[in-house]
């Protein structure tokens, strides 16, 4: 049977010839295409191959968007590209089509190895790009792979050498470049950076440099984003010299004639809200927008977690979901999928989904916390008003942030209109929050974490004109979260917030007194002296200034914030300079300050103090003056003196021994505390996972097209038992000369239906086509 379908040599030869002619014809059309003369309106007007056109048609992509019309012809001609176009303007297709076409014209096969590498800063975005690629590339014969983290590195290693188009996050791609002996990058034709400015910034610098050093310098490079830095140094790093720009000036600084860097269909507004009233305002906003689909951005995963957990208890009347980088990947993917399908829903999220994610039909983007910069603002609001659809955005600015941030927005021609909250609509949820936190220690704990992470987020911000740490109304803010008072925060090199602020604001006269304690005693700086074990013990004891609970929080916090998405997703050039950190304490009361001042005055007037003893004549002597022999004998029998001395010293030794035992006991307790802490964290992680899976909450659900990857993995022809699917035999239609897939026998690969992200990754690696 199989023999019947086999082509004989002359048929194969003729087919190859037709294919060559077709490709040559395409190349000529590309060379002849002059963007200055021709403006293609539809994909079919572009010099692109029939299989790609077929994939586009089937995905209902007919008409070109502006960035697609401007950039695709230039990319097809082989130029490097630096493109910046507004959010939701269709950049994904603008780089995917040239990638597919380049490999097509090169007649790329699985034996040629990696032909294109697409880098995205987040996993979600990489998955989305992969999804679009599998749709529009469904009639081509290339293999695509998604590497974004997961466990099955070994599995991927075995198959990665056969992948032609690899999409992934920087870290994971580097891991593969390092490990995969079979990954042949020497042939690489194209490198694409989506959200290029983010990929190029400090956070990914080292990884990206390492990736690029593995790649062939002769490759074509495409950089796309809604915001671009166009730093010459960045471009040089990518060996981008003779590149073409598309739409960059408009988007970069709003200097073009076309107005703001945000979509025209976006209606933007802001309200001035004191920090302590933000949650009241947010709750009222949600209550009055129950029939909408909205995303609320908060500054950290802890904020998101707290707001989600408390608001769902207060039941505003709309389905609530939450998404942040500290959730397990499975929960993130599930939430994303549910949110895409829902019609009336509110998603609390961090900036992990601020860039690139193409959520369908979002009506409102609310920024509860001010973004770190205008670029982040642009990306966040860009989650709505996509592809010409209407959308609305609201940003809450505190009186401290308002003026400076509006000024920053103006530089990009973004001028949101001011909204005022109707007095009648104002409702305080503070009493409810207080009662919730009072009843539920778990919520109180989340509240404390939310408080701490918010305060820290303000502290680490680079733009000090917008984020004024010293003006934070911490007590009011804590109260607004339902907490009885502001938790004390200890950060690296920083004492409590209040102390840090006090010290910053203290008069110069008092600044040098930062070493005085509450009793006005000057504490010596022992940091430069060798520390004895007693010093260490006392330091340890002093840590209990914080209650054990807060102590636990701050310790865990220090660990957690290492990879908290607020800090890690953002640029690492926002590093805190330890030297700038407030690190010392001030006497808290006026009495203590006064006392310390007078002590200081007397000490400074006397110069360096050293301890002395006075003799009967009032003469001062150093403490350790050698005693004369006569003097010694005068005091009595030497033996008795010796016994007395020894018993005094052994009493001192006994005291020291007691202290040692105390230290050992404390160590043991600390160990126990850590063990309990680990158990608690484990429990919390389980809870978090459980919470994250229940976002549906009976929301009216609309199923919008194929929004998820696993759907794409299904094949209509599935005939095997459930849980297995077959890959469709791909046919390439040259329309003017048809080509049957040359390796029918190899076209069927049985793979298991993906249940998890790891499965999905493994599956993508299996989907070797051709
Ligand atoms: N030519 C087209 N015809 C119809 N729909 C399109 C076309 N191009 C893109 N779209 C749709 O427009 C939406 C936005 O596209 P895309 O996600 O590529 O935008 P983007 O410019 O990358 O946005 P962001 O800057 O936020 O990443 C998607 O839903 C996509 O399917």
From TrEMBL:
Subcellular location: Nucleus, Nucleolus
Alphabetic keyword roster: ATP-binding, Helicase, Hydrolase, Nucleotide-binding, Nucleus, Ribosome biogenesis, RNA-binding, rRNA processing
Residue ranges of every copy of the Helicase C-terminal domain listed in the record: 278-437
Basic and acidic residues: compositionally biased ranges: 676-694
Chain ranges of the Helicase ATP-binding domain: 72-246
Span(s) of short sequence motif Q motif: 41-69
Domain DEAD-box RNA helicase Q: 41-69
Short name of any one Pfam family annotated for the protein: CTE_SPB4
Coiled-coil segments on the chain, per record: none
Keyword Calcium among UniProt keywords: no
The protein's enzyme class: hydrolase
Source taxon at top rank: Eukaryota
Keyword flag RNA-binding: yes
Chain spans, region Disordered: 590-617, 662-755
Enzyme Commission code(s) on record: 3.6.4.13
Catalytic reaction equation(s): ATP + H2O = ADP + phosphate + H(+)
Domain-related comment: The Q motif is unique to and characteristic of the DEAD box family of RNA helicases and controls ATP binding and hydrolysis.
Family: Belongs to the DEAD box helicase family.
Function per UniProt: RNA helicase.
Protein name (record): ATP-dependent RNA helicase
UniProt organism field: Saccharomyces uvarum
Lineage: Eukaryota, Fungi, Dikarya, Ascomycota, Saccharomycotina
Gene (name only): SUVZ10G1650
